[in-house]
Amino acid sequence: MSRRHFPVTSLGPGIRAGLWVQGCTIGCPGCMSLDTWDPAGGSTTPIAELLAWLCERPGLTGVTISGGEPFQQPEPLGALLRGLRAQLPAVDVLVYSGYTTAALRRSPRRAAAMQWCDVVVTGPYVARRAPGGAWRGSANQRLEILTPLGRERFGAVGEGAGAARPLQVGLDDGRWWLIGVPAPGDLNRIEQALARRGVELADVSWRPRP
Ligand code: SF4
C-alpha cells in the first residue's frame, strides 16, 4: 500500500476515499506516480484495517483505488472489494488499471477481482493521447461501467475531453499529494507558479529521483 486519503473529490463523483496501492511493472512513459512503481516501496496493510477505516469515513459515497497497479495484487484487491460490497453496499468503487479491459478479462485472477468493481478505468497512460476526460489521463483509456450503481453515479456525468478536470491537494504524513488527473502541462504550470512564489518542489513523483 502506498497511501490513503479522505475526502477525495477529484477522482470520481461524490465524497470519496482514495487508496493508492504500491507496485506497478507496466511503466507508462509520462506516469505521474513513479513513487508507486517499486513493489517494496510501500507498507503492508491488513484488509480488515482498511475496511474499518473506510467504514468510519463520514459521508463516504465512493472509493477510488489507484496506484501503482491494483490488479497486480488481484487476491487482496478482490478481498477488499468483497468486504466493501458486504459492509458498504451504497458506496461505489472505481478502480484504475493500466491493463486493457481485454487483458483484465483474459486473466482469471484479475477478472475475479474486477467482478466486484462498479467502474474501471482501463488501459495504459499514453502521453501523446492526453488529455482523456475528467477521470482518464489519455483518450485511449476506457471508462468501463460494470454495474447499475456505477451507471447511476458515473453514467450521467459528462466525461469527454472538454470536461472539467479538478485537481486537489492533500497533506498526508508530512507530504503534499496532488490528487486528480492533470492535463498535459498542468504539472509544469503548477511547479512554475509555486516557484514564482518562492516554493521549490525538490522531490516530485513525476520525475525519477536523482
Ligand atoms: S500510469 Fe498507472 S499503469 Fe501506467 S505506469 Fe503509472 S501507475 Fe503504472
From TrEMBL:
Presence of keyword Ligase: no
CC cofactor: [4Fe-4S] cluster
Protein name: Radical activating enzyme
UniProtKB keywords: 4Fe-4S, Iron, Iron-sulfur, Metal-binding, S-adenosyl-L-methionine
GO molecular function: 4 iron, 4 sulfur cluster binding; [formate-C-acetyltransferase]-activating enzyme activity; metal ion binding; ribonucleoside-diphosphate reductase activity, thioredoxin disulfide as acceptor
Protein's UniProt keywords contain 4Fe-4S: yes
Signal peptide: none
Gene3D superfamilies hit by this protein: Aldolase class I
Pfam (any one): Fer4_12
